[in-house]
Amino acid sequence: MRMEREPGIGGPLIAGFVGNGFRIQESRFDALLMTTEDAQPWSPPPLADLTVDAIPMLMATRPEFILLGTGKTLTRPPAAFTAALEAQNIGVEPMDSRAAARAWSVLRGEGRLIAAALYPLDA
Questions:
Q1: DSSP 6
Q2: Three-state secondary structure of 16-58
Q3: Which of left, alpha, beta for 112 (phi over 0: left; psi -120 to 50: alpha)?
Q4: What is the pLDDT of residues 8-36, one digit of tens each?
Q5: Minimal CB count within 10 Å: which of 8, 9, 83, 93?
Q6: DSSP calls for 59-114
Q7: Strand duo 65-69 + 114-118: pairing
Q8: What pLDDT digit, counting tens, does each position of 112-123 carry?
Q9: Distance CA 74, CA 41 (A)
């Protein structure tokens, strides 16, 4: 699947899926942290152990909410993770990683201040 950049959108956009990961321009990422300005590789903990300490890059941007791509299927993140984000007025939207990648492009097209943490597609 190929995803195209919407006119006027700044920052990183996922151009497609490669193996178990994501392609942004010519770079491939198995797991990924994204802000409206940057995309970085990520070595995520097992989802059951996820805490805000694992996503400092995202927390620094103070997004409206974080798209959490949980791998090949939707899995709820730990309640403590969600509560820690909500205590800082940051929402969390868990979904499978492919859906999160597609949602990123749509929401960035709307100019939303969001961030994303995407687990590998096979996780």
A1: P
A2: EEECCEEEECCEEECCEEECCCCEEECCCCCHHHCCHHHCHHH
A3: beta
A4: 567 798 999 999 999 998 899 999 999 99
A5: 8
A6: HTT--SEEEEE-SSS--PPPHHHHHHHHTTT-EEEEE-HHHHHHHHHHHHHTT--E
A7: parallel
A8: 899 999 999 998
A9: 21
Diameter of the chain by CA atoms? 38
Cα of first residue to Cα of last residue in the chain, in angstroms, is 19
CA distance 31 to 20: 9
Alpha-carbon distance of 62 to 66, in angstroms, equals: 10
> Is there a contact between 30 and 21 (Cβ–Cβ < 8 Å)?
yes
CA dihedral sign, ordered 72, 99, 120, 22: positive
Round to whole Å and give the CA distance between 53 and 81: 10
Q: pTM for the whole thing?
A: 0.90
Residue type present at position 18: V
Place of tokens 């969001």: 114
